[in-house]
Each structure stands twice: as structure tokens, then as C-alpha cells.
Amino acid sequence: MTQLNGKVAIVTGGARGIGAACAEALAAAGAHVVVNDINPPTEVIERIERAGGSATEAIGDVTDRQAAQRIVDTTVAQHGGLDILVTNAAYSDRRLFYEADLDEFQKTIDVCMWGPFNFLLYASRAMIAQGRGGSIVCVSSPHAYKAIPGAMAYNMAKAAIDQMARTAACELAEHRIRVNIVHPGWTDTPGERKFFHEEELQRRGSELPWGRLAQPHEIARGVVFLCDPESDYINGATLSIDGGALLPFDQMFRVKNRPQ
Q: At residue 78, does pLDDT exceed 70?
């Protein structure tokens, strides 16, 4: 079983969805979790505490570099250091690029690319200063390499995250700070309701190889695995948790021959 007793973690975008699941899973494994979000993550904190875990909130916009530095500095000062960072906060506006609202396009880039960079920057500095290593997991997406129409800004930002994480893994290795990437498949989160109604989500989920969307806790298990000290030799890796959604086999085969 993963043991993160005594570890301190920051999870960005932790108020709901995958971020909330990551915060709860890290706390269940023994870490104290600082839950960052632009909105108060009150329900997540309460669930963690009811389960016997330890967590505090850190409200702030990931696109605000000063806020990111403040959250990292406060975490180190109040909890004696920082061992784990999970960059998860995301935003997306879905339109054809030539019809895009450029403010929304820019916001997607700011949240999905600059947000992770801001926390990576200050968390890395803190971990280097501590001299005890660390683990960073960047929640990215298959959008990083799959050109999904209507999501150019999101595609661009996720591709940037992957290169950012791999470059950071190279540069931080000498400090024993690992940086890995998680690619969630289509996951059943509140954010998906921005683009799809419930019936459509269920229908399209049934067409996936595994017959359903992923659940946030399934993505969180992969994140915790990568943060585990027993995963010390995993660095610069990409873990896809997508139920085989991107395997290159025929759509008709996946629907007709799926085990019941």
C-alpha cells in the first residue's frame, strides 16, 4: 500500500473532479494535502477530514504567478516543506479556432499552460532548497498529441505541458525531483457537463472500449502511484489511464465484441 506519511502535497484545481479525487487519495495515503482552487474547496477538505486525513485550503488563481509563489511559500512555512505537487487545474473553451472568442482562447492557454508552469517553478525551487527530492505529477491529456477539432487552445496547452514536464524531469533529476505525466481518458467530471448533456455522456461512454467513462478516483490512483517513494525509478514517464480508448482498433470491433 502506498505510504506517504509525513509528506506534504499541493494539488491545484482540487475543488472538484480529478483534482478533488487526487487530493483525497493523497490524504488517504498519509500526506497532508494543500488543496488549491480558485473557489473554496470546502467539501473536499471536509471529506478528507471525515476520513481521518489532513488537509488545508489555498485559494488562488493558478494564472497569478504571485499567488502561486505565496501558496508554495506558505505551505513550506506552515508544514515544514513540500514533497509532492500535482498540477491539475484546467479550463477549456470549445470552438473552431477561426470562430474563437480570443479572450476564452487566451484563458485556456493561461490556465492550462502557464498555471502548471507557475506552480512547477516555485515548487521546484522549494524542493531544491530542501534538498530531499520530491515528486511532481502534471495532469495532461491525450489532447497533447491528438488534434481534436474545436479544442485548439486546449490541444496546444496540453502539448506544451508534456514538453514542459519532460524538460523539467531532465533538469531536476540531479536534485532527485521526479516529474511525470498522467493522461486521463474521457473522465466523468463536472467539467464535462459544460460540453455534453447527461444522456450524451452515457451514450458516448458506452462506445468506448471499456464501455464507460473513467471515474476521477481511477485517475487519482495513478497519480498516487507516481508519487509513491516506491516509484522512485519512474521519471519523465507518461501514464495513460484511458481504458484503451486510443488503441488503434476498429470502432465496430470495440462495440460488438466487448466482454459483457
A: yes
| Active site (annotated) includes residue 145 | no
- Domain encompassing residue 34: 8-192+216-250
Structural domain includes residue 186 = yes
Question: Considering the entire predicted model, what is its pTM?
Answer: 0.90
Handedness of CA 226, 230, 236, 239 (dihedral sign): negative
Summarize the confidence of residues 28-42 as an average pLDDT: 97
Decide if 201 is inside a domain: no
User: Which CATH number goes with the domain that contains 84?
Assistant: 3.40.50.720
Residue 2 in domain? no
Give the residue-averaged pLDDT of 100-105: 94
Binning pLDDT at 50, 70 and 90, where does residue 191 land?
Answer: low
Which of 98, 122, 154, 233 is the catalytic position?
154
